[in-house]
């Protein structure tokens, strides 16, 4: 699942999970994209895109948003038009966060508590990466992809799952930190 692919233009990040069992609170996972400028690649994002908040230049759109995981196939889909981003934008980190992560005896819902999780990153009809959150079962959020623009303007993908134990607000501040 890890690896680098160069020369990307327009990618789609999709997320899926199974609905919670009958009589239990719904599981709500969200895709988040943090876009970083050349002057600050790892601390403060120039743009933060998620449900209810779009990119100001229209290059990142959340095409589908689910609050329950009900549906067929992928429940949330985000499109990232790397080839249309301004030259000053050099890094895009994409992650997933569990909303309302309250469950269990300790009060925290983690990826281990949500069945059928998975993600896919594709360009056109070509799958670039796919996976699940099995390597980060105790996390409440995780990054799944990092897109980097080199000096020539070519975008590449590094797809790795990196878990975080943070609420959604904390996660948006930490997701772009140096690995």
Account of the protein in words:
With 179 residues, this protein is mainly beta. Helix content is 4%, strand content 41%. Strands 1, 3, 4, 7, 10, 11 and 12 form a seven-stranded antiparallel β-sheet that branches. It has a five-stranded antiparallel β-sheet with strand order 5-6-2-8-9, with no helix packed on it.
Order of helices and strands: EEEEEEEEEEEEH
| SS element count, helices | 1
Estimate what percentage of residues fall within beta strands. 35-45%
Main sheet?
7 strands, antiparallel
Helix content: under 10%
Q: Which structural class matches the secondary elements?
A: mainly beta
Rg: 16 Å
What is the β-strand count? 12
Q: Descriptors for this entry?
A:
mainly beta; 12 strands; 7-stranded antiparallel beta sheet; 5-stranded antiparallel beta sheet
At a glance:
It is built from one helix and twelve strands, in the order ββββββββββββα. With about 180 residues, the chain is mostly beta strands. Strands 1, 3, 4, 7, 10, 11 and 12 form a seven-stranded antiparallel beta sheet that branches. The chain has a five-stranded antiparallel beta sheet with strand order 5-6-2-8-9, with no helix packed on it.
Produce the secondary structure layout.
Elements: E1 4-6, E2 10-16, E3 28-37, E4 47-49, E5 60-64, E6 76-81, E7 89-99, E8 118-123, E9 126-131, E10 141-149, E11 155-158, E12 162-164, H1 168-174
Antiparallel strand pairs: 1-11, 2-6, 2-8, 3-4, 3-7, 5-6, 7-10, 8-9, 10-11, 10-12
């Amino acid at each position: 699942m890890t690896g680098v692919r160069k020369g990307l233009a327009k990618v789609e990040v999709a997320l899926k999970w199974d609905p919670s069992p009958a009589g239990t609170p719904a599981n709500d996972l969200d895709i988040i994209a943090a876009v970083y400028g050349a002057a600050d690649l790892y601390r403060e994002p120039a743009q933060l895109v998620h449900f209810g908040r779009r990119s100001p230049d229209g290059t990142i759109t959340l095409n589908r948003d689910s609050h329950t995981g009900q549906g067929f196939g992928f429940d949330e889909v985000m499109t990232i038009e790397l080839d249309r981003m301004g030259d000053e934008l050099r890094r895009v980190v994409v992650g997933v966060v569990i909303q309302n992560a309250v469950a269990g005896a300790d009060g925290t819902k983690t990826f281990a508590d949500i069945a059928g999780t998975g993600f896919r990153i594709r360009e056109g009809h070509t799958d670039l990466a796919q996976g699940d959150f099995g390597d980060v079962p105790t996390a409440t959020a995780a990054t799944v992809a990092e897109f980097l623009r080199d000096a020539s303007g070519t975008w590449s993908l590094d797809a790795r799952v990196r878990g975080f134990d943070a609420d959604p607000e904390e996660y948006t501040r930490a997701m772009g930190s140096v690995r």
